Amino acid sequence: MIRHSTMTLPISNPAVAAAVRDPLTKSVLELLRRFTRSATPSEIGKVGGIEFRALRRSLDLLEEAGLIGRRPAEGARREPSFHALGDAFIITFDAADKAQVALVEEIDGVMADHARARIREALTGSLSSVHPV
């Protein structure tokens, strides 16, 4: 498993944009970055408290974007395993491209809204384990 210290990916790539736009998918990436080895969907779901269907969608988005790698099931293990391809990710955009700037601003808004909702849930004691921060 080759893991780069830093990977640079363009927001102009639709797969990258889709992966970084979704808070749950970003949480799955963070979980995979913290594993010191490849992890199966069952392991990731258990650690993150993530429902299987949502986890599969996130893993597919991350793989398509080139942020994670997949290892096929081996031996007695019936599930493939996944690993982050980098320790850090830099998402680039062209500041002169209005569409890319608007996309970055939209993603920033989505992440801010998600953070506010998680804080509100934590303060009211209704924190859900389905969407880790």
Topology:
Blueprint: E1 4-10, H1 14-21, H2 23-34, H3 41-48, H4 52-65, E2 68-71, E3 81-84, E4 86-92, H5 98-124
Parallel strand pairs: 1-4
Antiparallel strand pairs: 2-3
Fill in the CATH topology of one domain.
Arc Repressor Mutant, subunit A
Give the strand content. 15-25%
Query: Which stretches of 5+ consecutive residues score pLDDT under 50?
Result: 129-133
Count of DSSP strands = 4
Helix content percent band: 40-55%
Descriptive labels:
two-stranded antiparallel ribbon; 4 strands; Arc Repressor Mutant, subunit A; 5 helices; 133 residues; two-stranded parallel sheet
Word description of this protein:
The chain is α+β, with helices and mostly antiparallel strands. It has a domain at 4-93: Arc Repressor Mutant, subunit A, CATH 1.10.10. It has five helices and four strands. A two-stranded parallel sheet has the order 1-4. Strands 2-3 form a two-stranded antiparallel ribbon. The protein is globular and about 50 Å long.
In a few lines, what is going on in this structure?
The chain is an alpha+beta fold and 133 residues long.
